[in-house]
Amino acid sequence: MKRKQIIVLGLVLVIIAVGILQYNYGGVGESYNEETYGKLPLTEASGKGYEDIPGAAVYVDGSSDTANVDAESGDQIQQTSGYFAQARMERDRVRSRQKEELKAIVDGASEAAEASFDLTAAEAQEQLVNIIRRSEAEATIETLIKQRGFEDALAYMSDTGSVDVIVKAESLTAIEVANISDIVVRHTNAEMENITVKNVN
Length: 201
Fold this sequence. Notes:
Order of helices and strands: HHEHHHEEHE
Strand order of the largest sheet: 1-4-3-2
Structural class: alpha/beta
Number of domains: 1
Radius of gyration: 20 Å
CATH class: Mainly Alpha
Largest sheet: 4 strands, mixed
CATH superfamily: Stage III sporulation protein AH-like
Number of strands: 4
CATH topology: Helix Hairpins
Number of helices: 6
Strand content: 5-15%
């Protein structure tokens, strides 16, 4: 009984600590500026693209993803909004299922689950904490991107450390990609080459 209480207490403390850090540092941070980082070598004259910069986040132009949509009727806006809502719902559904399975192992309620996942209670506990941290980071990234003036954003952080960010926008400038990447790095410690930024309009 004591062990379970210690585990639960540890989880609560981690969640509280993450909440405090988010509150104190969530909206504060240094965004891209030329004095600090120098000018971005992304001009039409240079002929260089995002993919030409070593270690840079990958930018994918997804402006054509919503092609064949009647813009006059407003279906494009509904489709894009529906895309973000559906993707977020699916991500949260998968995470909820993972949390339930890991909690069952941690609580010792399912020996079959422990055997099938080949995890000890301690390993399941660690994975559970990691999922909670990733979910918190994703929510923070989405909030901060929307605070930059974007209508919607979706972030997905994998267990391998790669981060995919989809932003509702017709296109993204080099500065916007740098600012979004900066937000991701500050809240996930992901390497730049593991960050993919995509726009969907």
